[in-house]
Amino acid sequence: MTVMDDWITAACTELGLEPADVPVPTVLDLAKDVAHQVLRPGAPVTAYLLGVAVGRGAEPADAAARLSALAGTWPVELGGERPE
């Protein structure tokens, strides 16, 4: 097991969730897209928003894809460059 696996297992136990229900690659890819194409602090907030949407019945992969697409079309910051 990795530290990530251990953390997810512990966090899921704390929240009464099943670790198998956590789409880790989907969440990490979404966070990467937002951090690199919008802004870094937006990544955890967007992951939270994804969780809220899923909790309200959205399909995780579809909701994440929609948010990643939105991040990909986000306007370039003033000065003409995206943040790194």
Question: How much β-strand is present in the residues?
Answer: under 5%
Number of helices: 4
Distance between the termini: 31 Å
Shape: globular
> Uncertain regions: pLDDT < 50 for 5+ in a row?
none
Q: Main sheet, how many strands, which sense, barrel?
A: none
Which class best fits the helix and strand makeup?
mainly alpha
Radius of gyration, whole Å: 14 Å
Q: Fraction of residues in helices?
A: 55-70%
How many strands?
0
How would you describe this structure to a colleague?
The chain has a domain at 23-75. Helix content is 64%, strand content 0%. The protein is built from four helices and no strands. It has helices spanning 3-15, 24-37, 42-55, 60-72. Helix 2 (24-37) packs across helix 3 and helix 3 (42-55) packs antiparallel against helix 4. The longest helix is centred in the middle third of the chain and has 14 residues, at 24-37. It is globular.
Summarize the structure.
The protein is an all-alpha fold. The protein has four helices and no strands.
Topology of helices and strands:
Layout: H1 3-15, H2 24-37, H3 42-55, H4 60-72
Helix pairs in contact: 2-3, 2-4, 3-4
Q: Could you name the key traits of this structure?
A:
84 residues; mainly alpha; 4 helices; 0% strand
